[in-house]
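Archive record
______________

***
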Amino acid sequence: MLRAAFIATTVLILGSASADRTHAQCLGDCDADGEVAVAEIVSGVAIALDRRPLSDCAVLDADANQVVSIFELTSAVGFALIGCPPAPTPTATVSCGDPSVTARFGDCVRSTTQADCENAGGEWGRYPFSGMEGCFCPTGQDACPCDSADDCLSYCSAGIPGGFDACATVQMGTCDAVTPIGACFCTPSFSPDSQGFSALCVDP
């Protein structure tokens, strides 16, 4: 009953979410169009309640355990509200960081084998939630200051100072040293029509 009430509340919150998102696919983006729409959250709720098959939105099952959990739905809601994170930008011009590392970042994030990953300076391993193997790529931007998603090759992040709503008080973050990461943090909104920091949980 509590689970159903939580899910119903989640859908109500999304009633005011903007659908003008054009970013990389993320958790809950069932049709891979770069945004999480209200209809996709509703579909996720139905899957979580065993009213629709997981195949309707397999991307919601981040840990590949054949179940859509409340945590996964909450993450999808977050992406619907603040937008999907942008894909790594291997050709981006960055003003802070180690040029020798940032120059190899593009090859690193495009690598699909352990050999290519390691040749580009990455470390091959398993992602923390999905368990899938992939490349962990250094950005060369360790601790570079940021206040916009465009400042970093990976996330611009800051610690959560209390509850998730406290992210609104954050004004500056630092660029992450590696991508992907699995954590909860404050980050600038990915939407061009929004400003300030919001809480985000990512689970590769």
The mean pLDDT is 78. Strands lie at 123-126, 133-138, 145-146, 156-157, 173-175, 178-179, 183-188, 197-202. The longest helix spans residues 70-82. Residues 2-82 form one domain.
